[in-house]
Structures
1.
Amino acid sequence: MHIVLAILFLMVALLSVVSIIRQLKYKNMFALGFSVITTVAFGFFSIATIISEISGS
Protein backbone atom coordinates (compact mmCIF):
# COMPACT_ATOMS: atom_id res chain seq x y z
CA MET A 1 0.00 0.00 0.00
CA HIS A 2 2.89 2.37 0.69
CA ILE A 3 4.18 1.92 -2.83
CA VAL A 4 1.08 3.77 -4.12
CA LEU A 5 1.94 6.66 -1.83
CA ALA A 6 5.53 6.64 -3.10
CA ILE A 7 4.32 6.74 -6.71
CA LEU A 8 2.03 9.68 -5.94
CA PHE A 9 4.90 11.53 -4.23
CA LEU A 10 7.09 10.83 -7.26
CA MET A 11 4.44 12.19 -9.63
CA VAL A 12 4.18 15.40 -7.60
CA ALA A 13 7.97 15.72 -7.60
CA LEU A 14 8.11 15.29 -11.39
CA LEU A 15 5.36 17.86 -11.85
CA SER A 16 7.26 20.32 -9.70
CA VAL A 17 10.36 19.78 -11.88
CA VAL A 18 8.24 20.97 -14.80
CA SER A 19 7.29 23.97 -12.67
CA ILE A 20 10.96 24.73 -12.00
CA ILE A 21 11.67 24.83 -15.72
CA ARG A 22 8.65 27.03 -16.36
CA GLN A 23 9.50 29.46 -13.55
CA LEU A 24 13.08 29.76 -14.80
CA LYS A 25 11.65 30.74 -18.17
CA TYR A 26 9.41 33.42 -16.60
CA LYS A 27 12.14 34.49 -14.12
CA ASN A 28 9.69 34.26 -11.21
CA MET A 29 12.04 33.73 -8.26
CA PHE A 30 9.39 33.45 -5.56
CA ALA A 31 7.56 30.62 -7.34
CA LEU A 32 10.89 29.07 -8.29
CA GLY A 33 11.82 28.85 -4.62
CA PHE A 34 8.60 27.08 -3.74
CA SER A 35 9.01 24.73 -6.70
CA VAL A 36 12.52 23.80 -5.61
CA ILE A 37 11.40 23.20 -2.03
CA THR A 38 8.51 21.05 -3.26
CA THR A 39 10.76 19.03 -5.55
CA VAL A 40 13.29 18.35 -2.81
CA ALA A 41 10.70 17.46 -0.18
CA PHE A 42 8.48 15.22 -2.30
CA GLY A 43 11.46 13.70 -4.09
CA PHE A 44 13.09 12.79 -0.79
CA PHE A 45 9.95 11.25 0.64
CA SER A 46 9.19 9.28 -2.52
CA ILE A 47 12.70 7.84 -2.70
CA ALA A 48 12.73 7.12 1.03
CA THR A 49 9.37 5.34 0.80
CA ILE A 50 10.48 3.26 -2.18
CA ILE A 51 13.71 2.26 -0.40
CA SER A 52 11.74 1.41 2.72
CA GLU A 53 9.38 -0.82 0.74
CA ILE A 54 12.22 -2.56 -1.07
CA SER A 55 14.20 -3.21 2.11
CA GLY A 56 11.10 -4.50 3.89
CA SER A 57 11.30 -2.39 7.04
2.
Amino acid sequence: MKSVALPLIALIAFAGYTVSVMVQAEQSLIEFGISLMSRPDTAQVVIDLYLLATLAGVWMYRDARQRGRSGLSVIPYLLLTAVFVSVGPLLYLVVRGVQNRKALVDASQQV
Protein backbone atom coordinates (compact mmCIF):
# COMPACT_ATOMS: atom_id res chain seq x y z
CA MET A 1 0.00 0.00 0.00
CA LYS A 2 2.97 2.30 0.53
CA SER A 3 3.62 2.45 -3.21
CA VAL A 4 0.09 3.77 -3.78
CA ALA A 5 -0.30 6.19 -0.87
CA LEU A 6 1.87 9.11 -2.00
CA PRO A 7 0.71 9.24 -5.64
CA LEU A 8 -2.91 8.76 -4.50
CA ILE A 9 -2.70 11.64 -2.04
CA ALA A 10 -1.03 13.85 -4.67
CA LEU A 11 -3.60 12.83 -7.29
CA ILE A 12 -6.58 13.59 -5.05
CA ALA A 13 -5.13 16.90 -3.86
CA PHE A 14 -4.06 18.12 -7.29
CA ALA A 15 -7.18 16.90 -9.11
CA GLY A 16 -9.38 18.54 -6.48
CA TYR A 17 -7.47 21.79 -6.76
CA THR A 18 -7.63 21.63 -10.57
CA VAL A 19 -11.40 21.12 -10.54
CA SER A 20 -11.92 24.01 -8.12
CA VAL A 21 -9.77 26.33 -10.24
CA MET A 22 -11.54 25.31 -13.46
CA VAL A 23 -14.96 25.92 -11.89
CA GLN A 24 -13.92 29.44 -10.86
CA ALA A 25 -11.95 30.28 -14.03
CA GLU A 26 -12.98 33.31 -16.02
CA GLN A 27 -11.59 31.92 -19.27
CA SER A 28 -11.48 28.55 -20.99
CA LEU A 29 -8.53 26.20 -20.68
CA ILE A 30 -7.62 26.91 -24.31
CA GLU A 31 -7.71 30.69 -23.80
CA PHE A 32 -5.55 30.29 -20.72
CA GLY A 33 -3.03 28.19 -22.64
CA ILE A 34 -2.87 30.73 -25.47
CA SER A 35 -2.28 33.55 -23.01
CA LEU A 36 0.54 31.59 -21.36
CA MET A 37 2.23 30.98 -24.71
CA SER A 38 1.98 34.65 -25.72
CA ARG A 39 4.85 35.72 -23.44
CA PRO A 40 8.38 34.30 -23.56
CA ASP A 41 8.72 33.92 -19.78
CA THR A 42 5.52 31.94 -19.29
CA ALA A 43 6.01 30.06 -22.58
CA GLN A 44 9.35 28.81 -21.27
CA VAL A 45 7.64 27.35 -18.21
CA VAL A 46 4.93 25.69 -20.32
CA ILE A 47 7.53 24.23 -22.71
CA ASP A 48 9.55 22.94 -19.77
CA LEU A 49 6.43 21.40 -18.24
CA TYR A 50 5.52 19.62 -21.48
CA LEU A 51 9.07 18.35 -21.94
CA LEU A 52 8.74 16.69 -18.53
CA ALA A 53 5.28 15.43 -19.49
CA THR A 54 6.78 13.88 -22.63
CA LEU A 55 9.44 12.15 -20.55
CA ALA A 56 6.72 10.85 -18.22
CA GLY A 57 4.78 9.59 -21.24
CA VAL A 58 7.82 7.74 -22.57
CA TRP A 59 8.38 6.22 -19.13
CA MET A 60 4.73 5.12 -18.83
CA TYR A 61 4.88 3.49 -22.26
CA ARG A 62 8.14 1.67 -21.55
CA ASP A 63 6.99 0.62 -18.09
CA ALA A 64 3.75 -0.81 -19.47
CA ARG A 65 5.66 -2.74 -22.15
CA GLN A 66 8.14 -4.11 -19.58
CA ARG A 67 5.18 -5.32 -17.52
CA GLY A 68 3.81 -7.20 -20.52
CA ARG A 69 1.01 -4.75 -21.25
CA SER A 70 0.12 -3.27 -24.60
CA GLY A 71 1.50 0.13 -25.47
CA LEU A 72 -2.08 1.10 -26.23
CA SER A 73 -2.98 0.61 -22.57
CA VAL A 74 -1.28 3.92 -21.71
CA ILE A 75 -3.31 6.01 -24.16
CA PRO A 76 -5.82 7.22 -21.50
CA TYR A 77 -2.92 8.28 -19.27
CA LEU A 78 -1.20 10.05 -22.17
CA LEU A 79 -4.40 11.94 -23.01
CA LEU A 80 -4.78 13.04 -19.38
CA THR A 81 -1.12 14.05 -19.39
CA ALA A 82 -1.60 16.12 -22.55
CA VAL A 83 -4.37 18.14 -20.91
CA PHE A 84 -3.64 18.12 -17.17
CA VAL A 85 0.07 17.12 -17.19
CA SER A 86 0.49 15.70 -13.65
CA VAL A 87 -2.82 13.84 -13.50
CA GLY A 88 -1.86 11.21 -16.11
CA PRO A 89 1.39 10.01 -14.49
CA LEU A 90 -0.09 10.18 -10.99
CA LEU A 91 -3.08 8.09 -12.01
CA TYR A 92 -0.76 5.64 -13.79
CA LEU A 93 1.29 5.24 -10.59
CA VAL A 94 -1.85 4.66 -8.52
CA VAL A 95 -3.26 2.06 -10.91
CA ARG A 96 0.14 0.36 -11.25
CA GLY A 97 0.50 0.19 -7.47
CA VAL A 98 -2.97 -1.30 -7.06
CA GLN A 99 -2.24 -3.86 -9.80
CA ASN A 100 1.08 -4.78 -8.15
CA ARG A 101 -0.64 -5.26 -4.82
CA LYS A 102 -3.36 -7.40 -6.40
CA ALA A 103 -0.73 -9.53 -8.17
CA LEU A 104 1.13 -10.08 -4.88
CA VAL A 105 -2.08 -11.10 -3.11
CA ASP A 106 -3.01 -13.46 -5.97
CA ALA A 107 0.48 -14.99 -5.98
CA SER A 108 0.45 -15.54 -2.22
CA GLN A 109 -2.96 -17.24 -2.41
CA GLN A 110 -1.69 -19.68 -5.05
CA VAL A 111 1.12 -20.91 -2.83
